[in-house]
């Protein structure tokens, strides 16, 4: 198997003095597509945010491309799509401006050259937003907004793509475009770590699933077949043939 692109070992993190990650191990190898699953509040976003340095680790080790994160400088190799907020942010930026900001890590002295503008155009074409290049991002639907954020991450032609709930609040048409875009990236050998609630249309692309519960890894292996709250191992439910006061049976990973 290829070298690890992401490696978390025994990672602990706290937010506001509350332990959120309680010693997690997570390895993503080159070319792999790994889904990070788990219930709300299980620590998925916090885990990916430790990878990109937005959340400090209290203990353990994080490495990117074999380099301890604190010494990692090659950020142009990493494309990050944060969890989408419902508000567009009110920043009066055009679609092109937002996507161009994702190219700055590749631009010398912060100046975009012809090849950089071309990469921006290409990223917009990939997500089917080339015709909206001049529009304000505030004029876009949620799904279109998400496509722009993904184009921003793709503009630096990253080797590693980290996406936090890329399908959340995204209309079906945009979901299909995003799945197609991702398929293309995976075909090129891009390594992908996705935070997901449900595998949904991305299921065929996923090599491995890591499931978190209460800040711990409770599953690391093949993706669960159908991932809804009910299908996920860890979902609590009481079987109808049992006494009404029976304790819920833990069958799933998602509770
Ligand atoms: N800034 C913060 N300060 C204190 N606690 C926080 C902060 N951000 C998140 N938390 C808490 O940390 C826990 C893990 O949050 P995290 O966002 O990593 O979970 P998640 O699995 O990504 O959940 P979701 O699916 O809802 O996005 C939650 O209980 C959350 O309330």
TrEMBL record:
Q: Do you know which SMART domains this protein is assigned to?
A: AAA
Name of the protein in question: ABC transporter
Taxonomic source organism: Streptomyces ruber
Keyword annotations: ATP-binding, Nucleotide-binding, Transport
Q: Cite the Gene3D superfamilies for this sequence.
A: P-loop containing nucleotide triphosphate hydrolases (3.40.50.300)
> Which InterPro entries does this UniProt record tie to the protein?
AAA+_ATPase, ABC_transporter-like_ATP-bd, Metal_Ion_Import_ABC, P-loop_NTPase
Mind listing the GO molecular function terms for this protein? ATP binding; ATP hydrolysis activity
SUPFAM superfamilies tied to this protein: P-loop containing nucleoside triphosphate hydrolases (SSF52540)
**PROSITE patterns this protein is in?**
ABC_TRANSPORTER_2 (PS50893)
Which parts of the sequence belong to the ABC transporter domain? 6-239
Matching Pfam families, A to Z? ABC_tran
């Amino acid at each position: 198997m290829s070298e690890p692109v992401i490696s978390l070992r025994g990672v602990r993190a706290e937010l506001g003095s509350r332990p959120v990650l309680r010693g997690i191990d997570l390895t993503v190898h080159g070319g792999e597509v790994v889904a990070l699953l788990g219930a709300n509040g299980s620590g998925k976003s916090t885990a990916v945010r430790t990878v990109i340095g937005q959340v400090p680790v209290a203990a353990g080790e994080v490495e990117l491309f074999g380099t301890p994160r604190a010494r990692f400088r090659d950020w142009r190799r990493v494309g990050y799509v944060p969890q989408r907020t419902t508000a567009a942010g009110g920043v009066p930026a055009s679609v092109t401006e937002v996507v161009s900001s994702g190219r700055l890590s590749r631009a010398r002295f912060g100046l975009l050259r012809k090849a950089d503008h071309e990469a921006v155009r290409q990223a917009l074409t990939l997500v089917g937003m080339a015709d909206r290049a001049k529009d304000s991002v505030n004029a876009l639907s949620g799904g279109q907004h998400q496509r722009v954020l993904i184009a921003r991450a793709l503009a630096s032609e990253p080797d590693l793509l980290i996406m936090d709930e890329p399908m959340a609040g995204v209309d079906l048409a945009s979901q299909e475009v995003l799945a197609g875009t991702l398929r293309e990236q995976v075909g090129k050998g891009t390594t992908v770590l996705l935070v997901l609630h449900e595998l949904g249309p991305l299921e065929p692309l996923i090599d491995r699933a890591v499931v978190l519960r209460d800040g711990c890894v409770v599953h690391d292996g093949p993706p669960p077949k159908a991932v809804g709250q009910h299908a996920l191992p860890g979902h609590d439910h009481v079987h109808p043939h049992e006494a009404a006061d029976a304790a819920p049976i833990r069958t799933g990973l998602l509770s």
